[in-house]
Target: Amino acid transporter transmembrane domain-containing protein
Amino acid sequence: MNPEPVLGPEPEAGDGESTARVGFNVLNTIIGSGIVCLPYALHNAGFGFGLAMLGVTAVLSQFSLFALVATGQRTGTAHFSSVTRAALGTAGYHVLNWSMLVDMVGTVVLYLMLLGDLGTALAAVYLPFAVTRAAVVLCVSLVGVLPLLFFRNTGPLARLSAVSVLCLPCILLAVALRAPRYADGPGVRLPVFGPRILPAMGVLAFTFSSCHAAFPNYTGLRDRSTAAWVRASSGATAGAAAISAAFAIVGYLSFGSEARPNILDNFPESDGAINLARLLFAVSLMLTAPMGFYPIRDTATEMLKIDPTRHGVGRAWESACTVVLFAVCAGAAARFTDLGLAYELIGALSSSVVNFVLPALAYLWAGTDVSLAAVRSQWRQVPAATGNGGSREREPLLPAAADTRPPVRQQKLRARDLGLWALAWAVAAFGVWVMVLGTHAILHGA
Model:
């Protein structure tokens, strides 16, 4: 049996990608189909609260990207499921795998749903014959996306990711220039809070969903260090937050409560500039869809024990799994059409678990030396006043020989480690909040 992949060994000379190129991959992973739903989410969350939570979600998602790799370094593994198993045991491993499948299948289905909507709108204007949405989905899936799904990791897609990201400014510019032309009324209200805050949190969780691609991108780095990963991922997250905020503000200020789950649907099919934006967005989605699909395949091949690298089986099994899984995604995209519900439910039900709850818990259990016991132990070493006005020194700690905790826990905890530990708890709490209350609100129409 092949051993688990580890993070330590450096790639051979000339192998791997630069920090900047991997950063483009991560940025391309974050800026996917979720961006066109942000004006809709901003209306539901409220302009003030929505923008604030967009920034908070970006910061928390960046911590999750760091936490996964940091925990992988300590556990010696380079796979999301392996890190979760090492940190949280079999139960966490199964929760991750099923949540990952729901999240990533939903993400790829959404990409293909959008491609079907965009392609149908363009075909209605520029083709001399009528085509159905289902036919567009299947054609684009087979011709534009499937050929990009047979690499071993996302490294070879780095240059295509750069092309995809460069499409985004053109899309944003087209929306910014044309949206005021179709704005209804002299302006829109800017409420602090909106009518459907929790479903909007699901959209934000979905938009910043990127942990599924952490290890495929990390292992594609030429310099496989935590510092290089932080530079690549933090730059990508900051860029994604800026682009997302700009897109959300422009779309909301133009259409307000009328903003649709795909903001491009607010424009008529006869607008040439918007049709160019539709085309560029379709190209971007075709190049982004593989980033969402690779984790599906990695999770499925791990669950079925047919991963060529980790289980020593032939590549044919992996290729067959790729085709079957992608056929399921394409079939679902051709069948379903409710984008708003899909964004909210997938984000609340699964993206919150995959991108916030499990990375934070894995870090707390295996990625740091800080624990509640260590914090209490350090706190008890501080002299405290007695209840009768006097003071006394507390009893000395037990001798080291009687303490079964690792020696590092006896050292004074650093402020940085304490801060990361506290942040991990905040990330886990945020994920549980979105998952439990958000899913409940969506299913009950709140």
Observations:
- Residues 1-6, 384-410 have pLDDT under 50 and may be disordered.
- The domain at 19-381+403-443 is CATH 1.10.4160.10 (Hydantoin permease).
- The longest helix spans residues 80-126.
- Residues 343 and 379 are 44 Å apart (CA to CA).
